[in-house]
Design goal:
By secondary structure, the protein is an alpha/beta fold. 41% of the residues lie in helices and 13% in strands. The chain contains 22 helices and 14 strands. A 10-stranded mixed sheet has the order 3-4-5-7-6-8-9-12-13-14, with helices on both faces. Strands 1-2 form a two-stranded antiparallel sheet. The protein has a two-stranded antiparallel sheet with strand order 10-11. Strand 13, helix 22 and strand 14 form a beta-alpha-beta unit. Helix 14 packs across helix 16 and helix 16 crosses helix 17. The longest helix has 38 residues.
């Protein structure tokens, strides 16, 4: 994500008088978009007067050509003229206004990812014709980023105190699990008290309602939308709530909607287990290790040390017993203690990239070298270990620099818009959506057992994913959104929905796309044999199919399978095009900055 932040456009709203509200009564656009008689959701949303926004030039914060506004929308759509919450909107105008089709709404995922941020970066990844024919619109979902922020604590100090115990990627030991459960309970209680009322009004259904009002505000009678990762669930919920208002909804990196929502029959299993992200990640890693073995050391470094699957098992077994201190060769200081959970979280990050196999091969080869006994100085083995130390340090520095750059960028955006001292609300932003959308077990203390069972089904990654929802336990997360979406995902939409699934997605299992397409009666499944999180940008095949659909509403032929440009271990290491040259890593220049469904995740760089 642009990490969900606490900064809000409310101060700018007041200073610049950004928001106006239309007089009572529906506008012409509102009337033309009205749903059929008896459509409860359409009638509920249509009671809200069409906002009359005051757009302002926000290019100092978000780049040339972008304009922004905030819109006051009902905190509760059952009370359309009651309390409101401010929602931030960014628009990048179409380059060919004379032939504009309408607006294309984007969402990067999360939940909690910045729609404002991905819209500001649209020219970096969307096709030129899409940019010509659509105004690109991004909304920061209520409670997140530059919209009014949900805050479950009065200040950063209280937040930090309650989050103690979350200092590991996921817990493994009994003590770590006890601390993680206690922190999860504190988070649930804080968001169910201090976080109200906004924490109880942040379900995906509320964001879908907000999006429908803003669709009307920008003058579109039907919605054109491209959503990634969690944004797939937002698109699915919108299509289910407003099926007659779908012009083109493309969802890429698809969460299983039934798994995310849950039911009485499945609520005893955590949402982050039900969506089978752990299985997706485990399958992707195992496939990479199998292909590494088959390709051999000419293509895969790790294969030069032995059977890659055996080596991975030895690495994880060793780190479970004794972590590895990684030392900066220049300063002699430990810059990272590599534990088993840290390694698994690094590998999950590797799997998000289309060149996942290269990253996995590098990281595991480096770690394997450093787990060996120190070699005699001056030997070939010593040179390999030195190279491994330097390689891991460079990988670590790159990740740190990316995180720092994201912080600097957002600090500059806040300064340009006149924001005050920052408060990072990423924990509550993510969870206020996840926990109000989904059904979950009663007690946080049951999560260790759920994590054990998930890890048996999805080795190494089942535990990581399962713990992400521990604050959602019903006993401590007691705030509810009575208007969260609890319906089916089987509505026939006015136009087809395009569902895009990636075989080797480590965050949104391909099975989620298959199930979403099976449920939606007027949909088309586009499959991609590609790597990383989501498929857009991984091949001309899938990117052109999505662009064409957005422009024309024409779906690809049934059964279409695209193949990603980057496939594991197909180019020898020691060639100008091989991984060691860095040439292949530069291919992915049209990848959207998607946000995986993990708390605090950064957008893909």
């Amino acid at each position: 994500m642009n990490r969900p932040r606490t900064s809000s456009l409310v101060s700018v709203l007041t200073a610049l008088a950004l928001v106006g509200t239309a007089a009572a009564g529906a506008s012409a656009a509102q009337a033309s978009a009205r749903g059929p008689i008896g459509d409860v959701e359409a009638q509920r949303v249509d009671r809200v007067p069409t906002p009359n926004p005051s757009w302002f030039d926000c290019s100092p914060a978000f780049g040339e050509g972008n304009e922004c506004t905030t819109v006051n929308l009902p905190l509760d759509y059952d009370q359309p003229r009651g309390a409101t919450t401010a929602v931030a909107v960014l628009r990048h105008p179409a380059t060919d206004q004379a032939n504009k089709i309408g607006s294309l709404f984007l969402n990067p995922g999360g939940p909690g990812g910045s729609g404002v941020g991905i819209a500001a970066q649209a020219s970096m990844f969307l096709g030129p014709e899409v940019l010509e024919r659509f105004d690109i619109v991004g909304i920061d979902p209520r409670g997140t980023n530059f919209s009014d922020n949900v805050r479950c604590w009065e200040n950063m100090g209280e937040q930090a105190a309650d989050l103690q115990g979350w200092d590991v990627p996921f817990p493994v030991t009994d003590d770590e699990e006890a601390a993680y459960v206690a922190a999860s309970e504190r988070v649930g209680q804080a968001c169910s008290t201090t976080g109200k009322p906004l924490s109880g009004s942040m379900s995906t259904a509320e964001v879908a309602r907000d999006m429908d009002v803003i669709r009307r505000m920008v003058g579109d009678t039907q919605l054109t939308y491209l959503g990634f990762s969690y944004g797939s669930y937002l698109g699915n919920v919108y299509a289910s709530m407003f099926p007659g208002r779908v012009r083109a909804v493309a969802i890429d990196g698809v969460l299983d909607p039934q798994g995310w929502q849950g039911s009485r029959a499945t609520q005893s299993t955590p949402v982050t287990t039900r969506i089978t992200s752990g299985e997706g990640a485990a399958q992707a890693l195992q496939e990479i290790l199998l292909r590494c073995e088959k390709a051999g050391p000419e293509y895969c470094r790790l294969a030069g040390y032995g059977d890659p699957q055996d080596l991975f098992a030895q690495i994880t077994a060793s780190l479970r017993v004794e972590p590895l201190d990684l030392v900066d060769p220049e300063t002699g200081e430990v810059y990272l203690t590599l534990t088993y959970p840290v390694l698994i979280s690094f590998l999950l990050g590797d799997l998000y990239a289309p060149i996942a196999a290269e990253f996995v091969d590098l990281d595991l080869s480096f770690v394997w070298e450093l787990l060996q006994e120190p070699a005699e100085p001056g030997t070939e083995a010593a040179a390999r270990q030195d190279a491994a130390r330097q390689g891991l340090l460079e990988r670590y520095r790159t990740q740190q620099e990316q995180a720092k750059a994201a912080d600097v960028t957002e600090a500059e955006q806040r300064a340009a818009l006149g924001f005050a001292f920052p408060y990072d609300n990423s924990p509550e932003a993510f969870l206020s959506v996840l926990c109000t959308d989904s059904r979950n077990p009663v007690y946080a203390a049951s999560w260790p057992g759920h994590a054990d069972r998930a890890d048996a089904r999805a080795p190494d990654f089942g535990r990581l994913w399962t713990w992400g929802s521990s604050p959602c336990a019903q006993h401590t997360w007691t705030v509810r959104d009575e208007d969260a979406y609890t319906g089916t995902f089987t509505k026939a939409t006015a136009n087809p929905v395009l569902v895009v699934g990636n075989y080797w997605d480590p965050a949104t299992n391909y099975d989620g796309a298959v199930n979403a397409a099976r449920l939606l009666p007027n949909s088309r499944l586009l499959s991609s044999d590609s790597w990383g999180h989501t498929a857009y940008g991984t091949s001309a095949c899938v990117t052109d199919a999505i662009d064409t659909y957005l422009l024309t509403r024409a779906t690809p032929p049934a059964g279409t399978l695209c193949v990603g440009d980057d496939q594991p271990f197909t180019v020898p290491l020691a060639t100008p095009e091989g991984p060691e040259s860095g040439a292949r890593s530069a291919r992915s220049d049209r990848l959207p900055p998607v946000v995986p469904p993990v708390p605090g995740a950064l957008p893909r760089g």
